[in-house]
Amino acid sequence: MQKQLIGHLKQKILMGSLPAGSLLPSSRVLAEELGVSRNTVVIAYEHLVAEGYVLADRQGTRVISISNVVGYVQNTILEPISLARRLEPFSRIQSQPVSKTLLLPGTPAIDRFPVSSWRRSLIRAIDSSLPHTLGYGIPTGEPVLRDAIATYLSIVRGVHCDGSQVIITEGTQDALNLCVTLLTNPNDIAWVEDPGYRGAKAAFYAGDLQTIPVRVDQEGLTVPPDMWRTHPPKLIYTSPAHQYPTGAVLSVARRLDLIARAMQAGAWLIEDDYDSEFRHNGESITSMQGLVPDAPVLYIGSFSKTMFPALRIGFLVLPRTIIRQAQGALHELLRGGHRLEQLALAHFIESGEFGRHLGRMRRLYRERQRVLRDALMKHFAETQILGGNAGMHLTLKLPPHINDRKIVEDAHTHGIAARALSTFSIAPTEQECGLVIGYGNTHAEDIPDAVNILAQLIQDALTSQ
Amino acid sequence: MQKQLIGHLKQKILMGSLPAGSLLPSSRVLAEELGVSRNTVVIAYEHLVAEGYVLADRQGTRVISISNVVGYVQNTILEPISLARRLEPFSRIQSQPVSKTLLLPGTPAIDRFPVSSWRRSLIRAIDSSLPHTLGYGIPTGEPVLRDAIATYLSIVRGVHCDGSQVIITEGTQDALNLCVTLLTNPNDIAWVEDPGYRGAKAAFYAGDLQTIPVRVDQEGLTVPPDMWRTHPPKLIYTSPAHQYPTGAVLSVARRLDLIARAMQAGAWLIEDDYDSEFRHNGESITSMQGLVPDAPVLYIGSFSKTMFPALRIGFLVLPRTIIRQAQGALHELLRGGHRLEQLALAHFIESGEFGRHLGRMRRLYRERQRVLRDALMKHFAETQILGGNAGMHLTLKLPPHINDRKIVEDAHTHGIAARALSTFSIAPTEQECGLVIGYGNTHAEDIPDAVNILAQLIQDALTSQ
Fold first, then answer.
1. pLDDT class of A162 with cuts at 50, 70, 90
2. Does some domain include residue B107?
3. pLDDT of A268 strictly over 90
4. Which of A2, A188, A247, B386 has the fewest Cβ atoms within 10 angstroms?
């Protein structure tokens, strides 16, 4: 009742039917008129005073002068909204349709995730740590998880760090954004692999960096020698263990050269180790970060593929020098949180569940890749199939001048979500036509039919050229 | 064994003891020397080829030329690291010590949070939605939560929106960052309340904005008329329902004036409704967003205080025009995730648990404020005590020229974490000395003693002047 009365009076004041400067009826009179208690009116008037609609003066409760402003606001023609300039590149990007899922790259087999084990780890974290872990916690993340990650990275990837250098982030995207925030100024130059990961480009556009494509060949990133002089970088994004999407491994010669020149240039290398846990041929590739002590490498990773995408836990390993210098900034910029999930993950890792899960997934992805490769080789030459040393995708090169975007669009109508290789480059070459085909989320039995459909679409495209 | 052999050979190559251009021993010879199987050596050599340490040629396996680069890298003197210029303001900020908790502002009573109910909501979400909710989900957040928030805001705060306008964020900080990313260019001007919320300043510094302080009086933000001309803003940060930290309510006259002038200037008002659920006097203050249709208001809020800080769920309500124009950008920049927590929260709200919890907390905070106010009035005049219409803190004004930072530092040694009012301003006035005293997280029985200690420290400071 009171709320309605307050709202009613406000409207009359805003609309001007209780004019500016006029006195409201006395509370007794209005209460009688409306058939409510006098107290109801008194409290309503007090509320109007609190919000500034009326003022109490000697004569009573007076309406202040605001209704003309309301009239102005309502009659003002709204200009078109100007969004930030940095969003310009995004206006050209089409959103991925979420309902198409067959052969979608970058997506793990979530139907094979050990839900019961994870549930146990979550409940264990809830029961053992509440209510303490409801609070803010350390901005850089739960120490037990940061330590577990440092240990894991050291053993499996040769990354040299301890838990204090590990920042827990909201997945890879947040780790990239943090690199930009900590180390670049607007208009600094950032190099990205071309073709390469679109999330890196998104982070660099969002950070107002000049984003320059650098070609990738079968040995990985290939930097023209004078580019260090003509486009001196501040950040260089790399996926050296398994280039996304071509699958190239960055040779140790190129790694060392990159490190040396980055040091000369005062640049930082971002090493994105996005799927190295799923190595299919031989031993893991050692990290670039661990290759030379004090190399200017920012190592990032994520549990989106090794655990599940919605977990949203990633990490950034910073050199000690940055941790020291950016201490205050990190505490102001980061907010921590998600402590139960972080504790659950730490337990999941330490209990061995994570390792067992990875083993099962490796075997699964290896098998699915075999099925995909076999299916592709019914229609295409082996030399057209790139990548596959690790991860959950293969890249199929197609003849030059083919419209891979059109093939992908047509494939969507069949529920197939493979991606066009040309869309991975800022500056695609004419030769750069192909499909990036994921197998992480597709059952082996569904792969051959889906490949047949793609092969047919490709054949149609070739004959119509 | 293989891993060790690979590591051993790599080291020798990097150090130059297996010189560039030389041939590795044949696999048979090395296997005999080391007493391992020939297969072990063969696979090790294949790995070295894969990483580019060696090349297989007609004569055997040859070491490539890289060791001179290693020498260079190891002998290069590292320059001091230059961090991003935007971090400069953060170097002056001291981190809050986490162990001091009495009277800490901005922190809810986490020991009173209904852990069992939340546990039930979480488990319900786990059991009813996995494995589907392990996947990426919608970047802007779970629809059921976005709808629940839209409904709640409409009823309780008069915010006009539907679920499609609600973006789920990582708390308030992420919501502020998103406003900056979507709507500003580097060097644009942002106004902040002075004294005001440091998180807003952090977001604006991080976004390369010129951050300009605007004074706050008892009616809220007070903008000098020519400031719209001399410092035309793109963003204006406000906490209009309960200014943080002074507690002022922004009068409706000032709200309408702000809205009208913001429209003229093409500026956006950020309305941070950080603690309005805990209103202690009378009805909720209606939102600025709902005051006038199509007002240029970005409404942000968070569940950090109404639920618990580690939950890290906040929201940003965008006008429809922005949602439409920024569609592509939102899908590229946001990654969604945390779906179980979002579903659990939606259930917690819809089941009525959230409303019941808020009711209990309101009563708790009202009582604690009473105890704090009584304790303060033993030592100070009522006119020195600001705020208290809502929330979990009071602000105690102290005489001019007192060093409130020193008082706060001394209070830390007693485990008291009240904050110095002068630290809330970019440009504090000499009169702006005081303490911001939280009662959300402090038991009523601990409040009087803590206040006595503060009173003593203040008395000491006054007598030593």
1. very high
2. no
3. yes
4. A2
- Residue B447's H or E segment, with its range, is helix B447-463
What average pLDDT does this structure show over B1-19? 86
CATH code of B222's domain: 3.40.640.10
Tokens matching residue B254: 């000032």
- Mean predicted lDDT score pLDDT of chain A: 92
> How many Cα atoms sit within 13 Å of B353 on the Cβ side?
18
Domain containing A367: what range?
356-463
A95 touching chain B per CB within 8 A: yes
Number of domains, chain A: 3
Domain boundary among A354, A388, A417: A354
For residue A126, which residues of chain B lie inside 8 Å, CB to CB?
Answer: 115, 119, 122
Cβ contact B394:B387 at 8 Å: yes
Distance CA A61, CA B415 (A): 47
CATH code for the domain of B11:
1.10.10.10
If we measure between CA atoms, which residue out of A212, A218, A172, A210 comes closest to residue A194?
A212
A246 lies in some domain? yes
The whole-angstrom separation of Cα B429 and Cα B443 is 33
Q: Is B311 on the interface with A (CB under 8 A)?
A: yes
B18-45 mean pLDDT = 91
Residue B92 lies in a domain: no
Tell me, yes or no, whether A410 and A288 share the same domain.
no
Asked if B15 has any chain A CB less than 8 Å from its own CB, the reply is: no
Q: Provide the pLDDT confidence category of residue A145 given band limits of 50, 70 and 90.
A: very high
Please name the residue of chain A whose CA is at the shortest distance from the CA of residue B51.
A251
- Chain A interface includes B261 (CB < 8 A): no
Contacts of A129 in chain B (CB under 8 A): none
**Do A373 and A345 belong together in one domain?**
no
Let me know whether B363 and B343 are in one domain: no
Residues B280 and B159 in one domain: yes
Tell me how far apart the alpha carbons of residues B441 and A138 are, in angstroms, rounded to a whole number: 18
Q: Span A32-48, mean pLDDT?
A: 91
pTM passes above 0.95: no
Q: Which residue has the tokens 């922005």?
A: B322
Q: What is the pLDDT of residues A163-186, one digit of tens each?
A: 999 999 999 999 999 999 999 999
**CB–CB of B304/B172 below 8 Å?**
yes
CA gap A103, A344 in Å, rounded: 30
The minimal CB distance from A52 to the residues B123, B252, B333 is found for B252
Which B positions 395-454 lie with beta carbon below 8 A of chain A? none
Q: CA-nearest residue of chain B to A65?
A: B253
Write down the pLDDT at residue B95: 59
Residue at A150: amino acid letter: A
Q: Give me the sheet containing B314-317, strands edge to edge.
A: B166-169, B314-317, B297-302, B268-272, B235-238, B189-194, B210-217, B220-221
Using a CB–CB cutoff of 8 Å, tell me whether A256 touches chain B. yes
Kindly state whether residues A380 and A413 are assigned to the same domain.
yes
- Judge residue A78's burial from the number of C-beta atoms within 10 Å of its C-beta, 0-12 exposed, 13-18 middle, 19 or more buried: exposed
Whichever domain contains A381, its CATH number is 3.90.1150.10
How far apart CA A401 and CA A465 sit, in angstroms, is 9
Answer yes or no: do B335 and A92 touch at CB < 8 A: no
Tens-digit pLDDT profile for residues B396-415: 999 998 999 999 999 999 99
Last residue of a domain, one of B322, B354, B386: B354
On whether both A364 and A317 belong to a single domain, the answer is no
Q: Say which of A47, A111, A338 has its CB closest to residue B282.
A: A47
| Residue A368 and residue A312 share a domain | no
In a domain, B125, yes or no: yes
Verify that B193 and B284 share a domain, yes or no: yes
Q: Is the pLDDT of residue B74 over 90?
A: no
- Pinpoint the alpha helices (H) of A17-142: 27-34, 38-51, 67-75, 88-91, 115-129
